[in-house]
Amino acid sequence: MAEREKNIGPGTRAVWSGEEGLGWQGATQVPVVHSVTFGFDDLDEWMEVGAGRAPGHIYSRNTNPTVEVFEEKMRQLEGAEAATSFATGMAAVSNTLFALLEPGRRVVSIRDTYGGTSRIFLEFLPRYGVEVELCPTEDHETLEAAVEQGCDLLYLETPTNPTMKILDIERLARAGHARGAVVVVDNTFASPINQSPLEMGADLVLHSATKFLGGHSDAMGGVVCGREDLVREIFRFREINGATLAAPVAYFLIRSLKTLELRVLRQNENAAGLARFLTGHPAVERVYFPGLEDDPGHEIADRQMRGFGGLVSFSLRGGMDEVRSFLGGLRYAHRAASLGSVGTLIGPPAVTSHVELTPEARAELGIPETLIRCSVGIENLEDLIEDFRRALD
C-alpha cells in the first residue's frame, strides 16, 4: 500500500489531492481539458512520453490531464499505489475481470453481487473458459473452503446490493492470499469515507463512481485502485478496450469528491435514523441495515467500517400492491434506479439493482419481490421520517 499522511483527513484529501499548487494561468479549479490529442515540439520527448518513461499525455483515450486529477484523488482516498478510471462502474468491474482472468482460471465470489456483476459471473466469464463458483454470501467457512480448492481471483462486495450483507474483508483476504489469489472488493456502497478495503488486505478496490463519489445523479464513471502492477494491467486493457472516462465527466466527479465526506456523514446519519424508524412500523416486515444491533452483519460491520452507509433495504408485509401504494405515496424520494445521490432514491430490485435477473433468479438469491432498496439522501431526517410514515400509513 502506498504511504499516505495519516494526519490528513479524508475531507482535506478529497479537496486537495492532485491539485497542489495553482493551475493553468493561476486557476484555482481544475480545468476541463477537451483536447483529444496532445502535441510535442521535440520528437525525443514525444517518444519518452509514449514509452511511459516520462510524464505527459498523447491521446485522451489513454490519459488526460483532467481525468488524471480524479484518479489521483481516488488513489489517495483509498490509500492505493495506483488508480485508473472508466466510463461507468460496470466498465470498472468488467475490465478488471477480463484483464486479470484467462481460460482455465478460477473465480470465487458470492451470490449477492450487484445484478450486472452477477451476470458477468453466470453468463460471460464461462463463455471464455473461466470457472466461477458463487458461494452463500455470509457463509465465510464455505467461501474459505471454495478458495482452498483453488482460486485465482476472489471477488467480494460488502455491504451487498441490495440486502446489505456484510463480509469480513480481512479474514477472506487472508484466505485468498494463502492460495495466491488476487482479492478484489467492490466498495461502492461504503465509499472511502466508511471503509478502506486495502488496509484490510484487499489488492484492488473498485467503485461505481456514478454513486456516492459523484453523488448528484449527473455523472457516470468507475474507478479501480490498488496494487500498481495490477492497476497497470487493467489500464493496458482499458486503453485498448476504450471504456475511457471523459474529461468533462471527470470534472464533475472531481467537484463532487470535494463534498464526499460531508455528504456521506449526513447520509450515514439519515440512514441510521430511518432504519430505526422502519423497525418499529407495523407495515414493515424486515429491515436490512448493518447499523442495527440485531442485524446479522452488525458485529463485522462495526469492526471494519467507520460508518454504516446510506443504504437501507426493507420488506413490507403484503404483496406488490402494498409496494405500489407505498412508493406512490412518497413525496421526498425519486422512484428511480441508482444510489448515492443527495436526493433520496427508492425502488424494488426488480427495477433497480437486479433488473437483469428473472423473479426466480432473484428469489434464489434471497431477494423478496416486496423488498425495497432506499438510498437515503441529505434531506432533513425528520422530513424523511414523516414522509415515510405518511406513505406507510
Features:
single chain; alpha/beta; Aspartate Aminotransferase, domain 1; Aspartate Aminotransferase, domain 2; 12 strands; 393 residues; 2 domains; 7-stranded mixed beta sheet
What's the quick description here?
With 393 residues, the chain is of the alpha/beta class. The protein is built from 15 helices and 12 strands. It has a 7-stranded mixed β-sheet, with helices on both faces.
What does this structure look like?
40% of the residues lie in helices and 14% in strands. It contains 15 helices and twelve strands. The chain has helices at residues 10-16, 43-50, 65-78, 89-100, 115-127, 140-148, 169-178, 191-194, 228-241, 247-257, 260-279, 298-304, 320-328, 359-364, 381-392, and strands at 82-86, 106-110, 131-135, 153-157, 182-186, 204-208, 222-226, 284-288, 311-316, 334-335, 345-347, 371-375. The protein has a seven-stranded mixed beta sheet, with helices on both faces. Helix 7 links the parallel strand 4 and strand 5 (182-186).
**CATH architecture label of the largest domain:** 3-Layer(aba) Sandwich
Radius of gyration of CA atoms, rounded to a whole number: 21 Å
Query: Within the largest sheet, what's the order of strands?
Result: 1-7-6-5-4-2-3
Uncertain segments: none
CATH class of the largest domain: Alpha Beta
Q: Beta-strand percentage? A: 5-15%
Separate helix tally? 15
CATH superfamily of the largest domain: Type I PLP-dependent aspartate aminotransferase-like (Major domain)
H/E element order:
HHHEHEHEHEHEHEEHHHEHEHEEHEH
Report the sheet with the most strands, covering strand number, pairing sense and barrel closure. 7 strands, mixed
Shape: globular
Q: Report the mean per-residue pLDDT as an integer.
A: 94
- N- to C-terminal separation? 51 Å
Helix content: 25-40%
Q: Structural class, please?
A: alpha/beta
| Total strand segments | 12
Q: What's the structural domain tally?
A: 2
Query: CATH topology of the largest domain, which one?
Result: Aspartate Aminotransferase, domain 2
